[in-house]
Design goal:
The longest helix has 24 residues. The chain has 305 residues and is an alpha+beta fold. It has a five-stranded mixed sheet with strand order 2-3-4-5-9, with no helix packed on it. Strands 1-21-20-19 form a four-stranded antiparallel sheet, with no helix packed on it. The chain has a four-stranded antiparallel sheet with strand order 6-7-8-10, with no helix packed on it. It has four helices and 21 strands. InterPro entries: 6-blade_b-propeller_TolB-like, YjiK/CarP.
């Protein structure tokens, strides 16, 4: 009897260990939660959301030509129908095609550590300097050859700056011209900055904090590395490099859907190594930049797939 019990206990222990291994190594907990969302989210809610489970990778880990390191944030420009990315060594703006081909480079003089970029209407963009927690508004036209920081309006949020854990993601809300900003970690933060973008001059700068939205951005994330705001759904896409996760968050801070950035998910053959920037075009395609120099494109699956 004792031998039987011992054998039974060993089998039970082995099953428990296999279960723990599956949860930790195979992301079973994430898969179960993804399955739960898919099964419990009403179709009406999905139609009003971006709904990340519907996306599959279309271009995976394409190397950006002539770029060896430090690829960072990215944004979609609906006027040029191209992407604009920042490079922080040397500091540059890189214009890309929707297939990830380099179109042109624009040097950034006087900038120190650019990490994020967002289009804010017309020929205007806002760039984040991480180390100094500064937002700089720049103008990029087809004729622009170089941008000098001292010629550009800027705003510095002097809170916990100087430790290289500053601004990592930007997103623009065209409804109120507010700029969403995320701080990477130590601690993770989400702010909304008003006054840098718009026609009113002189501008009155204002920092808005939403605890609910901030908590939603931080949920399930070990860090915050990228951001995109979708004006159609008014949802935020929040990127986490360390958690290998892209999540959709509504205006109340509630998580809506998830896109895992590890192999076996959404058609990925390999993990996305260091996700740094995310944006979406007007057709709903997602574009992701991964350091050192990788480009990804995700598209919605055809109905029935």
């Amino acid at each position: 009897m004792n031998a039987f019990l011992t054998k039974k206990n060993l089998i039970l222990l082995a099953l428990i260990l296999l279960g723990v291994f599956a949860v930790v190594q195979l992301d079973v907990d994430d898969r179960l939660y993804d399955w739960y969302l898919t099964k419990t989210t009403p179709e009406t809610v999905r139609k009003d959301a971006i709904w990340l489970p519907d996306y599959q990778v279309a271009t995976e880990a394409k190397e950006l030509a002539g770029i060896n390191n430090n690829a960072s944030g990215v944004t979609w420009d609906p006027l040029t129908k191209t992407l604009f990315m920042v490079l922080n060594g040397p500091n540059q703006i890189i214009e890309l095609s929707l297939d990830g081909d380099v179109i042109r480079r624009i040097p950034l003089e006087g900038f120190e550590d650019v990490e994020a970029i967002v289009w804010v209407g017309g020929h205007h963009f806002v760039i984040a300097d991480e180390r100094h927690q500064s937002l700089i508004k720049v103008t990029v036209t087809p004729e622009t050859q170089v941008i000098v920081r001292e010629d550009c309006p800027s705003f510095t949020l002097d809170m916990e700056a100087g430790d290289n854990k500053g601004f990592e993601g930007l997103a623009w809300d065209p409804k109120d011209n507010g700029i969403f900003v995320v701080r990477e970690r130590d601690p993770m933060r989400l702010y909304k900055i008003h006054g840098l973008v718009g026609d009113k001059q002189p501008a009155t700068m204002r920092v808005e904090k939403s605890e609910a939205l901030s908590e939603g951005a931080k949920a399930f994330s070990d860090d915050l590395s990228g951001l995109h705001f979708d004006p159609k759904t008014r949802h935020l896409l929040v990127l986490s490099d360390e958690s290998q996760l892209l999540k959709e968050v509504d205006e109340q801070g509630h998580p809506v859907s998830f896109l895992e950035l590890s192999h076996g998910w959404h058609g990925l053959n390999e993990d996305v190594p260091q996700a740094e920037g995310i944006t979406m075009d007007d057709a709903g395609n997602l574009y992701l930049i991964s350091e050192p120099n990788l480009f990804y494109k995700f598209t919605r699956k055809a109905p029935g797939q």
